[in-house]
Amino acid sequence: MPQDELEGSSRFSLMTGWRYAPNGRFYDMYYARPKHQGLERSRGATGGPLLMGCFAFSPINLIEVGIDLFTTYERMEFTGQPGLNAVGVGAIIDVRFQHKFEFGRYGLVPSAGILLGPTFVASFFDGGYAVESGSQSFGVTAGATLRLSDVWGLRFDYRLVTGRGEAEDIGSFDAGGSWFSVGINYQFPTKPARPLRRMF
């Protein structure tokens, strides 16, 4: 394997998975309100699906820089209240350290790094109006690409991200949390070094 095999390469990953944030404090705020005291507490947050597209480039062999566009959805239930829907969208820039290992026929590329970018959340109770909010998200990520061919592979990703949304008459909730995702990865072929053309 060439030492600089990852250098100058780029990839695109399309992933889906599940996002989970306990939001215990958010539920506590709801049931602590005088008119909700004594109500049977609902089961709490269960998380929701996510969809993410990632484009990344490796300027050098050990470092990858990428941008991730994502959308998330979650529905939270409260006793005595219509369901709360939360839709998030955002763009995150990430910097990862990576290394390719000889694994199987085409190799395994694990990576880990940090994340930074804006997140926008719209939340609304069934039949109500949307409350929109934005926040700066920070996080850490770890993942791996299992290559199945020279260009195709499976991508696995975990990230722990901050984020905040606002709900009508209750307060703020965690729109980040733990993200688990898996998807397909396409590795763009690197252009081979070309000899200088003779000048006339």
Offer a concise description of the structure.
The chain is 4% helix and 62% strand. The protein has 200 residues and is mainly β. The chain has a single domain, classed as Porin (Beta Barrel), CATH 2.40.160.20.
Kindly describe this structure.
This protein has one domain: Porin, CATH 2.40.160.20. The protein has 1 helix and 10 strands; from the N terminus they run βαβββββββββ. It has one helix spanning about 25-30; strands at about 10-20, 50-60, 65-80, 80-100, 110-125, 130-145, 150-160, 165, 170-175, 175-190. An 8-stranded antiparallel beta barrel has the order 1-2-3-4-5-6-7-10. A two-stranded antiparallel sheet has the order 8-9. Strand 2 and strand 3 (about 65-80) form a beta hairpin. The chain is elongated. About 30% of the residues are buried. The model is unreliable at about 195-200 (pLDDT under 50).
